Amino acid sequence: MGKFMTVFKFHLKDGLTSKSFIFGNLITIVIVLGIFGFSHFSSNGSKDEVAFINPTSYKTNIDQLNKGLNSVKLFLQEEGDLAQLKKQVRDGELDGIIEMKEKNGLPALTYTYKSFADQELVAILTQKIQQVGINKTIADSNVNPEVAAKLVTPVPVENKALKDTTGTVGIVYIFVILMYLLILGQGQMIANTITAEKASRVMEIMIPKVKPIYMMYGKILVQLVTGLVQIVIMLLGFLASYSLGWIDGKQFSFFGFDIDLSNLTGIVVASFIIYFVLGYLLYAIGYAAVGAVVSRTEDLGSVSFPIIMCIMVAFFIGISSIFNPASTLVVVSSYIPITSPIVTFSRIVSGEAGYAEMGITIVILLASIAIINHLASRIYVNGVMNYSGKVKFKDVIQMAQKH
């Protein structure tokens, strides 16, 4: 145990004090502050400007049309300016043009934009212009206003969500991406470190003094600690943004996703830490075995490709679970070890996974980690001193079977 702690402390000191780790975390803080700062100032900035042209007999009030438009400001323009306005849209100087026309005795709209339509603007403006048309038709036809009002009154709809998950979408999105990047990045770091040490023949000096298995576990646990430190660094960036007033205390928008901080409960944070640690250990042990069987860093990419594919599958299913957490694919994937850490956490935040399911998935993950650890430790011990060039799959099987 004393030799293991020596290895662990050595790699931990080397990892936490390296220039790449220090500068990497400084960049992380800058990125976090930059994201929240940009989101804050861009949301408080000027509205998109859209020209509104109305040569028809339907009278409109620009102030009334602008009511309810949070991110867009309409301004009146003449029909003769249309060519110049379109040029401004193409050049990015104007965000769009709304032309009001008459078709078959009814108002119609033509929306000109450069690349992406503002669907919120279209929905709100269509409703308002429709009301303008109705009012004119009522006036022209001498219809009793009270009768007309009843005819055009929309059917009231009362929404009763048994489980409202709209406030959790942003939380799931952020945490799923964070878990994916940390597991992938830390796992790749383990494999690269082991392969580099093997290629430089450092292993030949270390193995007579320290058991290879100690070296493997030392690297895995050190990368786990650095991953947790990175999470803390990101949390500090979040808290700094909050203290600067860049984040609303109750709800804020992050890249179009509304995040309700009241959904960020203790069980959510604890679940993230638990599933991150378990997911990391599951993949890190595999990465350690992969790093031990190759002799050159150039060969690492092809050998580790199956592990990367597994993580990517887990990530994509986790993202899809944001919108349909009760689908068969998501539910089944929450019990499969390679996808369970990301997918189960997503279902927990969405309220689809209870304590029983959490317990079952954790037990499955622990059992899977034990099995993979048993095989990977043999592969590592037998492969770390193997310099026979490219290792075939049958060679890896033999390493796993050899005591």
UniProtKB/TrEMBL annotation:
Residues 19-372 form the ABC-2 type transporter transmembrane domain. Its main location: membrane. It is found in: Membrane. The chain crosses the membrane at residues 21-41, 171-195, 216-244, 264-290, 302-323, 329-348, 360-381. Pfam families: ABC2_membrane_3 (PF12698). It is a multi-pass membrane protein. Keywords: Membrane, Transmembrane, Transmembrane helix. It comes from the Bacteria. This is Sodium export permease. The lineage of its organism: Bacteria, Bacillati, Bacillota, Bacilli, Bacillales.
